[in-house]
Amino acid sequence: MKCKVLELLRSHREPVSGEEISAQLGVSRTAVWKHIKTLREEGYEIVSQPGKGYLLKGIPDLLLRGELAHFLAGSMFARSIQCHLTVGSTNDLAKAAADQGAPEGALVVAECQEQGKGRLGRQWFSPQGGGIYASVVLRPPLKPEQAPGFTLLAAVALAEAVQKVAGLTPGIKWPNDVLLAGKKFCGILTEMKAEMDRIYYLVIGTGINVNTDPQSFPESLRDTATSIKTEGGKAVSRIELLAVYLKNMETLYKVYLEQGLPPVIEKWKTWNVTLGQAVSLTSGGEVFQGRAVDIAGNGGLVVVGNDGEERIFQSGEVTLRTK
Amino acid sequence: MKCKVLELLRSHREPVSGEEISAQLGVSRTAVWKHIKTLREEGYEIVSQPGKGYLLKGIPDLLLRGELAHFLAGSMFARSIQCHLTVGSTNDLAKAAADQGAPEGALVVAECQEQGKGRLGRQWFSPQGGGIYASVVLRPPLKPEQAPGFTLLAAVALAEAVQKVAGLTPGIKWPNDVLLAGKKFCGILTEMKAEMDRIYYLVIGTGINVNTDPQSFPESLRDTATSIKTEGGKAVSRIELLAVYLKNMETLYKVYLEQGLPPVIEKWKTWNVTLGQAVSLTSGGEVFQGRAVDIAGNGGLVVVGNDGEERIFQSGEVTLRTK
């Protein structure tokens, strides 16, 4: 019933009287008042205008299940939503859900991660307040060698979302580091369970420093990490950013399944800050130096070495070199 | 103590008296007699020669933990051995063990699988009596795109083991169907958990029709399936075959880690029945017809299509076509 009260307030741009809510929903005015009180406690800004009624003026910037369901209505990511205050790692919860048969699109969100994970077993600093920590389960009818395409796809979805919601223009460093002013504000970790012939499931985990204060970062990160608020100068709605990101991801996922990776790569290239650059690429303990020249059809990075040798890397870590 | 009695009998080629066993192990002669009785019940053939003592003449053809530990002594596959009579699927148990931190080399063996799994979600018929159903956990410091190499590697390890133990010469159909007289007697299912930059673990599951009677197969399989006993005309020791297979796998695994896949591919080619053949390759719902001409450096199958186009497949299913 609380949700129905909220939906009713959402659908009105003018104040609605307690009497009208009571009549429309068939509950007592006391009950209406109690639900309004609870919603206010959850952070909803509901003003009471004497003689007119209640008006919803603001929603809390909390990743609440009901809010996500509202913003994601009709999307595959609205099918199964888990919201937590504190978790170990959203990817671990999403993998556990996938092992238990969670549907494609299952979403796990947290306000804080105690063991947030980055690539290669690294930590992803995940403080409470201002960050998005979200993981989704996908079950693409594809093969393991097609999985790296999803790291490009997720980066494009995020770059587009940041531009739309925050009005900023990020750059993507291959494969999926999304940067603002050359600094990292987002990490994407894609994990999979598969046999050699097909993927069972992918979990794409995303950590985004949205309104996070970089002063709260460990000192070792302060030079290289940033947040959207820091770069844009104002806070943005986390709910809106997450919803736009996931909707973009769904759109690109359909493109990948229907048309293959090339159209995703074309979009990726519009955000690219890697191609044309002198790079050091660390992959499997080896460091390769050269110039990044292209993205291969399967998403790999094509690098021409200093000795003229061309190599394609499916994974690895790029450092942009200043000459 | 039962194991010590067994080890003592194993180490003697002549009968050992109950008195001597009793003295060497520091237990009563009644205790010795009870352990001998238990071992006999487990299937050990221990003859009692009047006036001389006990002689171990045969070990049971059961995949017993103690026997496997004995045959695999010193191997990475002796680190953690689980033996079961009946399981759902050894791969599922091995994955669960790996998720719980099982060491590299962890081995799960069963006499019978109720839900034996093949590639692409198919069933692997796993009756009790005569078959080997075994899964191992590997944790290679490699990337997901290097995982398909293990399917070739496992097939080579098995082909070599069958030749050594059964004296037969199997053929390998790409990627890892090991055949006798053109019929399948073995299935290998490789599963993995990974992030895009590294494999967390691989589980390689192997089902082998060793002494299985093909008359026990479902009718739909009888034309295409066989067993080692059927083709060789005599039963072979399952314990020995499994131990030789796993030791071969360990050797090839070291070669792969130290020298890369090419030397494994060279060995694979000596068993090959695919290259030079007209093939239909089904991969991701697509059927490609042509001639299999080579194995790529990463283990993929190089096929020249009927239209002259050359393509490399990382996974898929090959049908050898009769022209």
Give the C-level CATH assignment of the largest domain in chain A.
Alpha Beta
* C-alpha geometry of chain A: elongated
CATH level 3 topology of the largest domain in chain A: BirA Bifunctional Protein, domain 2
Indicate the mean pLDDT of chain A. Answer: 92
Strands ordered across the widest β-sheet of chain A: 3-4-5-10-9
Q: Span between N and C termini of chain A?
A: 63 Å
Order of helices and strands of chain A: HHHEEHEHEEHEEEEEHHHEEEEE
Taken as a percent bin, the fraction of beta residues of chain A is 25-35%
Counting copies of identical and different chains, the oligomeric state is homodimer
Number of domains of chain A: 3
Largest sheet properties of chain A: 5 strands, mixed
CATH architecture of the largest domain in chain A: 2-Layer Sandwich
Radius of gyration of chain A: 22 Å
CATH superfamily label of the largest domain in chain A: Bira Bifunctional Protein, Domain 2
Number of helices, counting only DSSP H or I runs of 4 residues or more of chain A: 9
The largest chain-to-chain contact, stated as pair and per-chain residue counts, equals: A-B, 27 and 27 residues
Number of strands of chain A: 15
User: What class do helices, strands and sheet pairing of chain A give?
Assistant: alpha+beta
Outline the structure in words.
- The structure is a homodimer of 323-residue chains.
- By secondary structure, chain A is of the alpha+beta class.
- Chain A has three domains: 2-58, Winged helix-like DNA-binding domain superfamily/Winged helix DNA-binding domain (Arc Repressor Mutant, subunit A); 65-271, 2-Layer Sandwich (BirA Bifunctional Protein, domain 2); 278-320, SH3 type barrels.
- Chain A contains nine helices and 15 strands.
- In chain A, strand 7 and strand 8 (183-184) form a beta hairpin.
- The radius of gyration of chain A is 22 Å and the shape is elongated.
- The mean pLDDT of chain A is 92.
- Chain A binds chain B through residues 119-120, 141-145, 147-148, 151, 175, 189-198, 283-284, 314-317, and chain B through 119-120, 141-145, 147-148, 151, 175, 189-198, 283-284, 314-317.
- Strand 9 of chain A pairs antiparallel with strand 9 of chain B, so a sheet runs across the interface.
